[in-house]
Amino acid sequence: MVQQERNPGMPLDMGFINAIVVNKSATVRRCGELGTRRIVTGDHQLAWLMRAISCMDLTTLKGNDTPMRVFRLCEKAKMPVRQDMIKKLGKSDLTAAAVCVYPARVKDAVRALKGTGIPVASVATGFPSGQTSLKFKLEEIRQAVVDGAEEIDVVISRDKVALAQWTELYDEIRAFREACGAASLKVIMAAGELPTLTHLAKASMIAMMAGADFIKTSTGMEEVNATFPIGMTMVRQIREYYELTGHMVGFKAAGGINDAATALVWLSLIREELGVEWLNSNYFRIGASSLINDIERSLWVGLTGMCAARTYMPLA
Amino acid sequence: MVCGGRAMAERLTSHPDVAKVDFCGSTLVGQSIRKATAGTGKGITLQMSGKSPNIIFEDADLDGAIEGIMDAIFRNQGQICSAGSRLLVQESIAEKFFAKIRRRMSTIRISTSLDKSIDMSAVLAGTARIQRLVDTARAEGADVWQPDIEIPETGDFWVPTLITNVGPTSTVVQNEIFGPVVAAMTFRDAKDAVELANNQRYGLGSGVWSENISLALDVAHQIRAGMVWVNCYNMFDATGPFGGRKETGYGRQGGQEGLMNYVKPKWMPFDKHDWTERLSDFAAALEKWSTRQFGIIDENDVPFGNPALVVDKSPKLYISGKQVAASSNYVYQCRTPTGEVIGQIAESTSGDVAKAIDAAHKAAPGWAKTAPHMRGQLLFDMAENLSYRVEEFAKRIHIMTGRTMESCTAEVEKAIERLFTYASWADKWGGRVQEVPVYGLTVTVNDPIGVIGIVCPEEYPLLGFVSSFAPAVARGNAVVVVPSEAHPLSATDMFQIFDTTSVPAGVINVVTGGQAQASRVIAAHEDLTMIWHFGDAESAFFVEYLAHDNCKRTWCAHGVQRDWMDNEQGEGLEFLHESVEYKTIWMPAGI
User: Fold this and answer.
1) Does the complex come out with an ipTM higher than 0.90?
2) CB distance from B200 to chain A under 8 Å?
3) Relative to the CA of B65, which of A208, B89, B169, B310 has its CA 20 to 30 Å away?
4) Which UniProt keywords are listed (chain B) (predicted)?
């Protein structure tokens, strides 16, 4: 991942954190109208869908992942849209943003993506629950980087958020950032396991102060993952941080984004709340697996007017 | 016997004196034949391209499987529609297996057909296409391996080729090559294997190699193809039907199942139609047929005379087990024969029809797996629930059509009887054992098609509706039904019966509105592989023409009206035949 200038972080400012407050119902109301106020159709929709693909972290996080399964996903990352469609769209250099896997599979992904420029993202720090020692979390990060991961998706300790241990949370993320070295750090909030949107907002700001390159909504394995109110809350904090420091931090939505229509609303949210400068793979990612299939079918509808069969699009 | 290419095929098949077409060749030519014969009333069987997988499980006889690959893709130079041109190998044995294949490929002898010691001969129609595709594979990063064997210096010969390091996205995995080239991928388990096997446009054949009968049969059941060869490949016999589904085509050759494609019911007239003038400006003709003005409300509309008999109905659509409003606000009037308005009928949009098709797709797998006995029980239950309301349903038909109460009551009772009939067929038409020359078991299973789009006849508003969905549902399909346009209220009255019967959500979906509009959406939808159309001959033309795009199977009335009250015409083998896809599973045996 190429970033213009990396977020260096800043010392923890509890005054700022204590002042953060989120009104849930107002947030929910604003999110309810997102899909209705910016409708994108025709050729513009085709372009937006391709932009969504270019921002996708194609992900597999299953217990039975094997080298072959990872290989197949990497092939899809290289060629996310079927050849004949890509030709019609005139975008032969379209690829996914990254491939995201468990630490044990990093080497397989690196090998499969060799020479393509597509980075491998590894989850780490006892993903998904994070219920393990700091020592092991840091070692896991270091090993993934040694194996070739250029991006690390870490999970925060939700217990620290529940107990309002904000300094400890800051210190933990700071340590993650150091262990990453040159690798980019995405900090997963696991928002579905946090008490309130206000807690989420505070944790998001702390993560950015501690040096996150991206803040990410969820592991994809909580009961509730990337909803619009969660995204809105985090994105507003990204804006606050930018206004405070001048540094751009990226946003990743992960889990529960299953169809093209939803992906388009996410793009709209980013565009409206942060701006076009955020609307590329340097600052916006969608973590997904089956979403690519729905986007591919939507591209087909856009190109031909026909509703495609599910089995016609190559499996991810 | 005549020779010629595509132009000859189109000429021959569209000749007015030709009543039946049986085509074997590429999907491209098959599609043009479908267009040329659309709406003519001719029978048509299409057997076209394939990309069939040979699936090797870790508990297979590996050397036996190697010979199966020889049969599938190297003997015959891989130039057969059912060629096993994909190879799926279980990851745990992949390395060992590929080493075996390479050793075997190195022993292949290639020469002219007159040489008596050969395994392979020349390819038909040149090697340029094969070369192009193999070059594309290399360009996409695949590993292309060929044994170091001699081939004649002149002539169209191609060295057998193994391509690895490819995924579902690769060009050589998706497209038919029609040569001795096999693209290989690995899989973890049966679930993976089935998913990979079915991830293609075509549905012709599949090989399954395993010595575990539970595994082999489970996988055989889940593969969406016309042929499954267990521990063998490319076995054929006239007794056993051969053919495919999806974009491979429809109809079978061989067996009693294949004979069904050459016969029609005795009572049915065979009218031929000619639509060549429509073809000259198809797009304009299509618009004219399927577009109508929405929302014309006549101020002089006369409301129905006796409000005590019926409350003005504004029925909704029935999708996924719920009554939902159509997404347009347009309605048309349902009238009595004297013009009085008795209902406002929703005009379904293409979005509504697509939503109904999606709902059916969600329900189809579960319904197909439901025990046949239970499907039968549901239809018995439905008949029972309808039987409590005979008078009400008869009255509805009487008001809509003006027919006598006696006639209408007979229609309702016939509908109940028909539900009983198909409830009985739900678990008594599973398939046939085929007496082929191979020792073991070869069986044709009557699989559900999946989702069927049905456009109901105008005559007999209740009986026509029931006679349409009942056979399809009994045989395990989910349906999207467009009821009679003029008299849809009997069908919409059935929503309550569906609810009371607890029909699983999405198994039956009903979209009201203009039949031409809805037919167009269904016929053009690429994720639908079968449409039944009980309408006029012109609509059949458009439906069959649109169906060419994804080689959709069609069953059109071409304007022939049935006497639905007569069991010979209104039910039976014809309907069952059109509700299933025949899958023939070959299982040679011996110890």
Assistant:
1) no
2) yes
3) B169
4) Oxidoreductase
A216 is catalytic: yes
Burial of residue B418, with CB atoms counted within 10 A of its CB: 0-12 exposed, 13-18 middle, 19 or more buried: buried
Give the mean pLDDT of A151-174: 98
Per-residue confidence (pLDDT) for residue B23, from 0 to 100:
93
Which residue shows structure tokens 């089935």? B194
Q: Which of A108, A186, A216, A294 is catalytic?
A: A216
**Cα angle: A242, vertex A248, A253; to 5 degrees:** 105
Alpha helices in chain A (DSSP H): 14-18, 24-32, 34-37, 42-54, 67-78, 83-89, 106-112, 134-147, 158-162, 166-180, 197-209, 228-245, 260-273, 291-304
Summary mean pLDDT of chain A: 96
Three-state SS for B556?
strand
Q: Token digits for B438? A: 């191979």
Q: How many CB pairs under 8 A join A and B?
A: 72
DSSP 8-state class, residue B264: -
* Residues on chain A touching B167 (C-beta within 8 angstroms): 71-72, 74-76, 314-315
> What is the 3-class SS of B459-473, one letter each residue?
CCCCHHHHHHHHHHH
Query: pLDDT tens-digit profile of B429-484?
Result: 999 999 999 999 999 999 999 999 999 999 999 999 999 999 999 999 999 999 99
Closest CA to B41 of B286, B270, B260, B280: B270
B465 token code pair: 């509706």
Q: Which two tokens stand for residue A252?
A: 């990743």
B358 has a chain A CB within 8 A of its CB: no
Asked if residue A57 has pLDDT above 50, the reply is yes
- CA angle, corner B59, sides to B53 and B60, nearest 5? 50
In sequence order, which residues have a C-beta less than 8 Å from that of residue B489 and are 6 or more positions away? B313, B315, B334, B342, B343, B396, B400, B461
Backbone angles phi and psi of B240, in degrees to 5: -110, 130
Nearest chain A residue (CA) to B525? A307
Give SS3 for A219.
coil
Buried/exposed code over A140-172 (b: 16+ C-beta within 10 A; e: otherwise): bbbbbbebbbbbbbbbbbbebbeeeebeebbeb
Among candidate residues A126, A46, A87, the one with its CA nearest the CA of residue A303? A46
The phi and psi torsions of B184 (rounded to 5 degrees) equal -115, 135
Q: Which of A65, A68, A298, A300 to mutate to test the interface with B (most CBs of B within 10 A)?
A: A68
- B453 closest CA partner among B472, B437, B439: B472
DSSP-derived 3-state class of residue A135: helix
Q: Which residue has the tokens 């996914």?
A: A96
* Residue B563: closest CA among B419, B460, B451: B460
Residue of A60, A307, A310 to mutate for B, most B C-beta atoms under 10 A: A307
| Confidence class for position A1, pLDDT limits 50, 70, 90 | very low
Confidence of residue A311 (pLDDT cuts 50, 70, 90): confident
Contacts B140 to A, Cβ<8 Å: 79
Looking at residue B14, its pLDDT comes to 84
Please name the helix (run of DSSP H) or strand (run of DSSP E) that holds residue A187, with its range, or none: strand A184-188
Using a 10 angstrom Cβ sphere, with 0-12 exposed, 13-18 middle and 19 or more buried, the burial of residue B336 is: middle
